[in-house]
Amino acid sequence: MRISFIGAGRVAHHLVHALKQHHQIIQIYSQGFVHAQKLATEVKAEAVHTFAELSAEIDVLIIAVSDSAISDVIQHVHTYLPNTLIVHTSGSTDIEKLTKVHARAGVFYPLQTFSLEREIDWYSTPLFIEATHLTDLNTLLQLANELSQRVYQYNSAQRLSLHLAAVFACNFSNYCYDMAKQIVDAKQVDFSLLYPLIIETAQKALQAEPRNMQTGPAMRGDQNIIAMHAQMLKQDQRPDLEAVYHLLSEQILKRHQS
User: How far is CA 9 from the centre of its chain?
Assistant: First the structure.
């Protein structure tokens, strides 16, 4: 297939390199032209300065931009590619953001966290597709099956629930790692000492109900330890961490008292 991209960020970077294995990447547009140019050079595609330069001789246009920019992008792109299959890669954006403007619309959402520094295991990454037309759904199904063994046809409401859950499972948990590192860094303690604990916690969450795997002073209702930890954070003048500690401890306690 002939595929073009709007966006040259982390999601676009990984998708472009994954899809080039089976298909031809034609053009890449980004507000920051230098980013489009760099990514296009890597896959022997053309970087374009404007939407008007986008070629209609493609099978799919993939919009891989921030959620807030999708509505504006489809308004402009539809003018130049009124008959092209156009999809976005967002988990939290309803397909209607596209269908209100463009008839041949779809979604190609990878449930994964993307960093330029790390490669993606596409084979095990869940991919969620949706389309307004059966032929276009089959096109997206082909693309998805070439990348992953876990492909699902989910609607926008289902994807949104996954995206919200992912914020808790990925973004919030990573911030907890960040807070943990701040605490040990302040006492010149090696953060890597926590690596086995982090790995074991993640593995337990994969093998059993997370609720049943909960441990720690809040789960036990150990108010003495909770008070001691809170006092340590207060003495270190970290009201931000103290607030999060109290909130999470209270919620864990409520969860396990019930």
Answer: 12
